[in-house]
Records
---
Amino acid sequence: MFSNILFSIAKKEFMDNIRNKWVLILSVIFAILTIVFSLFGSIFGTGWQDIQGTVSSMIAIVQIFIPIIAIILGYSAIIGEIERGSMSSLLALPTTRLEVLVGKLFGLGSILAVSILIGFGIAGVIIAVNIPNPDIVGFLIFIGATILLGLVFLSMALFFSTLFKKRSSAIGGAIFLWILFIMIIPMIVQGLLIAEVGIEPLMTGEKVQIPDWYYGAQLVDPGSVYNSLIALTIGSMSTPGNPLQITYPSYYSSGLMTLIFIIWIAIFFVLAYWRFSKKDI
Amino acid sequence: MITKTVECRYCKSDFTVTGNPGEKLSIPCFNCNKKNVVTFSDKGGEFVESVPVSYALEVSGLVKIYKNVKAVDNISFKVRKGEVFGFLGPNGAGKTTTIKSMLDLIHGDAGQITINGLDVRINGKEAKKLVGYLPEKVAFYDNLTALQNLLFYAEMKHASKDECKVLIEEFGLGDAVKKKVGTFSKGMVQRLGVARTLLGNPPIYILDEPTEGLDARGVVLIRNKIKELKQQGATIFVSSHILSEIQAVCDRVGIISKGVLVAQDTVAELSKKLNLKPKLTLELEKVSDAVVDAIKKISGIYDVKTIGCMIHVVCDSNISAKVIVAIVNAGGNIVNLQTQTPSLEEVFLKYTEE
Ligand SMILES: Nc1ncnc2c1ncn2[C@@H]1O[C@H](COP(=O)(O)OP(=O)(O)OP(=O)(O)O)[C@@H](O)[C@H]1O
Ligand SMILES: [Mg+2]
């Protein structure tokens, strides 16, 4: 019974939002971007780059845009329905607030997953037929990691959707958190690192002792967890967004990165439920 | 004292009961906690029947405080199964707040609410299976069509696609079945809202201003629907401003003013309590002093007013005939005559006076 109701809510959410046409448009943009990056990603390269090259040139941009899509999908999920007035009818049905929230996470999560799969998938197929020995597993891991990153920000947006009294404040809050996670925290962390070891050794690639706290701090930031997860599974790389040459400590593993993603999703979901269950509709 | 081991009607487990001969007690089963009625005959304990839950809706001691407003101030009432209960009050009295609390949409600061004996805070899901709710502000998913919308709610209420179609047709939206609700007029949304409330044929209805925004035909549709549901044995809790509508269909009314339930009873009882008298309005060919004096002499007359050829008399209901006889005897010639029983409106205005 629980799963039936969940399925209904998730399906409704999917249908209601799939009409936000530009979610689909974005997946087309992602497909095009991927292909463009594969073709022209390397300044010196001619022709198609291999999967690893394509992925590493895309990470920086994916890290910015996937969270934005997730926030746009999620920020109005709760407060939007309350503002429109449809929440009272939804909650008057034989269901619980937990089911409604899980249903929304599933429904919106599937939209996110589907656009990422379609966008990157199409591009991946096109690249794969054009290069020898494509690293298909690596590309699938890239897609999976991207979906997880999206889910972290979706869960965060859901929480913000329960936190505020107005939709406009909810998107404001979510965007603030996005800036915090994608820009401010990484900047502070990098800044502190530079302050401690100096800029020259990092630029010249000279071997220096990176302090332990740096790796710990990186684990808090979903963007850098995403980076590490891909680097650890597909292969080490330097990206335009992360020019510092870093070798990971031994406790860094793809399992740990995945776990951190799941913990973030869970934390924001629990916070969202805690707020939602107390909310007057 | 008689002590006997008996079998629970519900979970079939055995438990012991004690009572005096001839006593009839309602005792919760030790295992499942459901109440069983036990009659203690001389032979010992013996089951008769389960305790029927006699109230469809029970609100006790409900309080809801917003920052500085006591929106609902210790409200208690009970609605019997099969009853139509009208919930009346001026704007901002606390009707919607009470109703939303009944569906656990709003969490009160104190009080308990049960639907068919189920506490909405604890057994909300089970309780809500029994209820069709029409919110004050009816809204749908604008991107979905009328039918797609109803199908979503129907799935959750175990109603069929055919039922959705029949209801859409019944509420005059047949032509709009495949239109997006976002393009609907206010009245069309309200009609679809009523249709949604009826999905799955629940035994209890909670309606917050059902006739809001409807045209005359829509109002009649709702009134007839309420009558029809009542005939089927449904319980209906309805808030409204249109008192004449309520008076026509309600068994009892509750009147709320500034968050306080100031009265609850049948309209007739409330009029009696307020000492509201029927009004007799007579039109004469000509009103003379003799006629007015003759009326005033009758005992049981409270007020006599004349305006032109009209005489308004407030009197006990059983002396209307005497008034007419007195007028005729005093040489008056009655052209027309009307009696007015006290209306819900008067009761309402009296109870919600500033
Ligand atoms: N979310 C809220 N925050 C603060 N005050 C509120 C809120 N909702 C309702 N109130 C206040 O509670 C009181 C009761 O409001 P409620 O909506 O229950 O009235 P009502 O009887 O349904 O009125 P109406 O006939 O206009 O629908 C009002 O004084 C209102 O201002
Ligand atoms: Mg109201």
---
Amino acid sequence: MLGRSVIEVANLRKAYGSTVAVDDASFEVREGEIFGLIGPNGAGKTTTMECVEGIRRPDGGRITVLGLEPYKSPYELQHRIGVQLQQAQLQKRIKVWEAVDLWSSLYPRPLDGDELLEQLGLADKRGAWFMTLSGGQKQRLFIALALINDPEVVFLDELTTGLDPQARRKIWSLVTGIRDRGKTVFLTTHLMEEAERLCDRVAIIEHGRVIEIDAPTALVEQHCPERSVVFTADASPPAGLDSIEGIESVSVEGFTYRLEGRGEDFVTRVIHHLSASDIHVRDLRTVLPTLEDVFLKLTGHGIRD
Amino acid sequence: MLKGLLKLTWVEIKIFVREPMGVIGTVGIPVVLFLVLGKTLGKKMADSGAPPTVLSSGLAIFASIFIAVGSVLSLVAIISIYREGGILKRLRATPLRPQIILSAHVIVKLIFTAVTIGLFILAGRRYFPLDLEGSAFSFGAALLITTISIMAIGFVIASAVPTARFAQPIGSVILYPMLVVSGLFFPIELLPTAWQTAANLLPLTHAVSLLKGIWSGGAWSDHLVELGALTLNFVICIALSAKIFRWE
Ligand SMILES: Nc1ncnc2c1ncn2[C@@H]1O[C@H](COP(=O)(O)OP(=O)(O)O)[C@@H](O)[C@H]1O
Ligand SMILES: [Mg+2]
């Protein structure tokens, strides 16, 4: 899984007038992974991504994508990457097949457009005008356009923002499908659940600075080691809960117990203890911290604040 | 890349035709107006015994230049709309060169300008016998040069006007007054001297003069000043818009 790095960004800087959008950002994306740039709106995700795609000129720093410098060789780069922009539209009255056909004509060895539309569930929309598509269908068309040249790296900027949960799930499985075909995916999102589901590694960006880079589980492990187990037991209160290794607090509400502790093995220990004490457990669930909690911990505020 | 240009041009033609208001506004209404005008005016003039050709030569140039300016305004509008909607940006994140994207739009507008003028000539022939003394080919070439030169002004307007809503009105406010003093409606000799000097600096004045000259059979060599002015206008405007053009 640890492939060579296909994107290298070092000390990237970009300001719009007096607004510093990206401030000294550095990270790398490796071959075959889904890498996520995550952070709240206005953090500088889109700006960073567009600099990497070669459509925005950085003020400082060094970027290489597949060995090319994006702003210096934009056309050469465009042949080898696929791009979905955060805020893009097509001509209102362009038909789905016409867009795919136009894009196919721009590359030397395009994939089969109809097959791609089929895979993305757009086959029955071939003849529909762009303006008549739903949000999810538009995004799937943009994915089709990003894949038409069989690119080595695919860029997806806030792919599911504004979509309903069902459409979102469909897109998620498409994205993991892209990686499974051996492509590298570089995406941005402000949805922590999305990042957790999709990304092999994430970089957390805030106010234009990258503050952490790692696998989501590793970040949770490192920054939020607390674990909770909540269970409901029949009548008799189990004894010795306080003695479970790593436990920090026990709270009781009726027959429902909430155990908080830390450590990778905490949940296993609780389960062992419960089965050893031979009590009847009606219900048991674990509450694990998420990337959202990591973000809160690192920045002192929630992602949606 | 040529393949991309042809594909994009063809797609844009289809899209233009799909927009009913666009076709009616730029092709339909002018032709219908012209027909109505021809029916009433042409008949009156025939009754009064005035030689119809007096009006018709002016009318052909008048119509041509109005259609050309109209096309330029719709070019300005479409570029602003494409920019505002992020369509230009999306097209740019492909191997398409910017010049190709803009050229496709220019070609589409040139084609529809030609179609509209062609329809005009067909529709008007019955009422206004054309007194074209030069060759139709020369006039077509003069019109092409003129239109391309005005389109360059359109690029500057499209580059400078930030929002799509104001693009067309601002374009009209710039281009139509230029037209008023261009010698199209009355000879510029009727203007005060200072105004004449100003009018002679405007590209549309040279456009009108070139079209009139070629229409009445003048030689190209007699119009080197106009050709020079239109070329200069083109070069300056393209250089300026290349500097200030924004893709988003
Ligand atoms: N074209 C632009 N002109 C001026 N400011 C911009 C522009 N694009 C983004 N910004 C500003 O730069 C910052 C980062 O924006 P962006 O990169 O879009 O962040 P994100 O994608 O994480 O939401 C924000 O403060 C935003 O307002
Ligand atoms: Mg963004």
---
Amino acid sequence: MEQTYFHAIDLINDKCKGCMHCVRTCPTEALRIRNGRVHLDDKRCVDCGKCIAVCPFGAIVASSDPLSIRNDYKFKVAIITAPYAGQFTEDIEYSTTIKSLYHLGFDRVIEESMATNIMTKMKRHYIANNKDKKPILSSNCPAVIRLIQVRFPSLLPNIFHVEAPMSVLSMYYREKYSAIEGLDPSEIGVFVAVPCIAQVAAVHQPQGAYKRNLDGAIAIRDVYNAVRNDLADIRNLDYDFITHENGLSRALSGQEADEVGNDQIRTIAVSGIENVIDILQKVEDHILDQYDYIVLRSCTSGCVGGILNVENPFIARSRIQTLIRASKHHDHELDPMFSSYLNGEFDVLPLEPRSIMQLDTDMKQAIIKMKKLNEIKEQLPSIDCGACGAPNCQALAEDIVQGKACIDDCVILLKKNKNKKSD
Amino acid sequence: MAVYCNISEDAQQKYEHFTKEKPNPEMSIEYKVGHKDFVNSGKASSEIKLMLKRLGVNPEILRKVAVASYEAEINVTAHSLGGDIICDIYLDCVHIKFIDNGPGIKNLEKALEPGWSTADDLVREMGFGAGLGLPNIKKNADVMHIESAENQSTILQIIVFY
Ligand SMILES: Nc1ncnc2c1ncn2[C@@H]1O[C@H](COP(=O)(O)OP(=O)(O)OP(=O)(O)O)[C@@H](O)[C@H]1O
Ligand SMILES: [Mg+2]
């Protein structure tokens, strides 16, 4: 049976006008217009969210868990990813935005930034001990992980194969609070406020570094709204917590590379999925072998560019940089967990390829298809008009070879042939 | 005319079989390589690799093809007046020929030594010229065959079995 893939994307059929914006934008060519409506190829989609951003008609929308999902659990833990800190105007203190979450009914608020220190230490250790797999590719962006699975399966061994900070945090705090509160681990709900749909998908259908140990993924913009409406009520309330602005660098691609890099570790920071594809191509061609660590993020500027955020990524980045600059370093209770990493407790299984590249599992068939593909390409007009519903002539040729379309879908060719007949 | 041929140990039998059978290639693709065109150099190798990937050739083999053909393509760009690449795809191997328009290799034996290079300033500026290209091709290709002479074209052929 074909495996099914979870995507945090909803297609609203009656809003789609068949305009091709999304089809042309999709970096993995996962979208087609058929009979005037958009179709998504489950296997190709990596949840980068670009289609959602370009759809002028609201026909492609992001899905995430509602804030109310917390009500199903006795003890509620919120994990806040780093971009959250960049969403609020500077007159609202970061600590206030955390305080509000307690007021909104979360029993414990965990900042993903708490894990940055220990993650940096793990990455450095991992890079030093896996020189044979150099360059090591960052694993934090689930869209990038899926992109590697579908388009660059040969690079799967290069991925930093250690649990994501969210998973480490969730494992640690679920255990801790079930002990303190005397609750069954299943009565503790751990939710993460996420900046993008790739993270929603990763929580619902984890791959490698994301174990299924989170109970929901809530959009940062939904949390933002609730917090904005709550601010007036919390001025005089007192909760006991400290904040970890120091580790917010995770939200910014360049910053992570700077933190992990040193004399021994040469890094590159890459953001934006087209740039990521270009770099992965070069890694595959072995022209970046001199680098040790490459930070890859599907969204522009890193996670601040995710579509479930509220603020413009460049403004959010500036705010986060200000917070980091003003921050003090705090030792964290997680820091001693480095030994758990060394014991292999954070190891993840090797990632499975999900290649969309292979034309056929049988090489003979693949060669036949490749020849046919080239022949069809010769016939097609090569103007990439998109009238057939595929992003370009090459993609239509492939669809035809794979039996998903026919040559008559090419309007230009059809017209040409008609004219010939009537002559 | 100087000739050099190296056949890796593992490939001896396969190569013998291949030369005896003389199969027709399933597909044949040609590329042009421009003199000192460093902007486009590497594209043919990249396309060859992509095509083999689409045919389902496994990553370890792809890596060998990618490395060997990239080095060979760069050599045509860097050291010759330009030339052609012909890539023949068979069911069990890929055969790539790099045929340039001269000026040939004066001393083939020396050229094959690791660290030996005649790269000019421009080539060095582009980050090449360590003299490791040909040794790297030898390491990655199952069969490597070069023929060259001063003021003639150089023909480099590589075969990698899947
Ligand atoms: N196609 C060619 N035409 C003429 N000379 C060549 C050709 N290929 C290689 N050579 C000669 O052989 C020498 C060694 O080639 P090799 O690829 O090993 O090193 P390189 O190209 O100089 O440096 P690197 O490949 O490490 O960047 C070159 O410097 C050049 O003199
Ligand atoms: Mg060379």
---
Amino acid sequence: MSDERLKQVSAIRRAMIRPELGAICGTILVFVFFFMIAGDSGMFSPEGIQNWGVVSAQFAIIAVGACLLMIAGEFDLSVGSMIGFAGVVIAILSVQWGLPVWLSIISAFIICVALGALNGFLVIKTGLPSFIVTLAFLYILRGLTIWLSILTTRQTIIGGVKEVAQGDPLAWLFGGVILKDLFQWLGDIGVIDTFTRGSRMGQPVVEGVPMLVLWAFALIIFGHWLLTKTRFGNWIFASGGDAQAARYVGVPVNRVKILMFMFTAFCATVFATCQVMEFGSAAADRGLLKEFEAIICVVIGGALLTGGYGSVIGAALGALIFGVVQQGLFFAGAESSLFRVFLGGILIFAVIMNTYIRRMITGER
Amino acid sequence: MSTPLIEMDNIEKHFGPVIALGGVSFSVMEGECHCLLGDNGAGKSTFIKTMSGVHKPTKGVMRISGQDVVFDSPRDAMEAGIATVYQDLAMIPLMSVTRNFWMGREPRKSFGPFKWIDFKHANQVTMDEMSSMGINLREPEQAVGTLSGGERQTVAIARAVYFGAKVLILDEPTSALGVRQTSNVLATIDRVRKAGIGVIFITHNVRHAMAVGDRFTVLNRGQTHGTAKRGEIKPEELQDLMAGGQELAELEGSLGGTI
Ligand SMILES: Nc1ncnc2c1ncn2[C@@H]1O[C@H](COP(=O)(O)OP(=O)(O)OP(=O)(O)O)[C@@H](O)[C@H]1O
Ligand SMILES: [Mg+2]
């Protein structure tokens, strides 16, 4: 028996109408735009790609955490402060206290993930909006970071991490590049330009794939798989969609939410560690405004601010849009303040489109 | 008479100074639809939340098939075969029918340490169960938000039945529905009852209760005035009881199986 009111859904429509459609269109639009205005500026040369690729990957790392947390129905505004805090913890432990770098990194992860759990625990126990609780942590962590840094070194920048990280068994996972041989070969056969002078003569201008980019891909794949394919992912949707309804059918909503706060903190720490390894230093003001940038990526990616709906792939595309626009305007030689105008425009465009798509999918009125 | 599937004996529930339930007794037999009626604030929701493990009774005993039980969580009640369909909390509209149907008990496949939802199986079962309830889904990935209110209730009922509920509690499943959707839900209740499941049907609509009920209990300000069998009580009498009953004294005589 078939219902006469059901129109046959075409395969194309079904493939098109998905949460990340707005972000896909945004991505295409942004790339077309920059091909036109900055196509010959070197933005799409291997070096240029590396430039905006790394920036996008940074956004993506924190966006994955923010995305899963937002779908679970919560926010974390302390991400930016957590980035600064994690970096300073690593630098103080390794440079000032002389602990091995691997131990410093592991300690930073443990401390930050525990702080994430504390965030979640407070939100669950007090029933306050996570917006407020994590806003408090935005200030607390930033203040602590500056205080700790000044207390131990009398300054807000702690350098010397690169030196102590030489040959460390864990540090390589967050800094440097892989596939060096492949890129050398690409340089040799002329696909990638090589340096023609100086100490790096003959080496390709792009050394390899930065570990940061690898982390971004790993987190995106993990987040997407977790969310769409696993039981836990179903519980993430349920916790954000309607926590009470989820509880009634036995979903451990509190556990899901606290774990998502911890995962967000984990992502922030990955970001911080990569940054410290790249710069060889930590600074107390790192990560400023990152929480908002992460939330913007997630919203461009089609997630619902109130939870229960969204896509990790969408958030990753949001991060790509963010990175390409930020670096692209620089390549195009445009006024850097225009970045914000452009970004605001894209945000509005994507959100309007996302709202329509979501209504189509979920039957919201 | 056989032992009831579930028996609530003199249940009291206090919220601080508020006595929401003041000694309510109630039972459901196999294949029976027992209607629980009452005005707003009578304590119906509180009563069934006690039954489904959301609240712990302040006093009183619960028995499942004659055995004393204490539920610490909704999960315990579910494992004992008690499924509850809440009126507005039955489903999560943003999520697909399949995801809703299996929520909390997703079927999984695994490879080494990796486990993931077996969507092929989940979708298939969902489609089959839905069509056996008379609902033809466009596709199992369809969001619940695109279903009508009656269809959502039916998905929730189908889910409970599929997961082996022995007792099905429905909290005002028809209160927000139109005529056609209501009759769909009532037909579903009838179907479920014939399969041997005990149904507890909460409503303030006497006509809906009369349409499917085998027994009727009226709650008023946390108290029951007894239980009547089908045919022993007229709709008008139920209505009066619900309203608080000025003619309560006369009516008590007509309540056959007074507890
Ligand atoms: N968690 C609670 N804390 C305090 N009082 C409560 C609580 N839950 C219910 N009550 C009180 O218990 C009484 C019974 O409420 P209940 O929700 O069970 O009524 P109901 O019969 O389901 O009404 P309705 O038909 O409106 O759904 C009400 O007076 C209500 O205010
Ligand atoms: Mg109620």
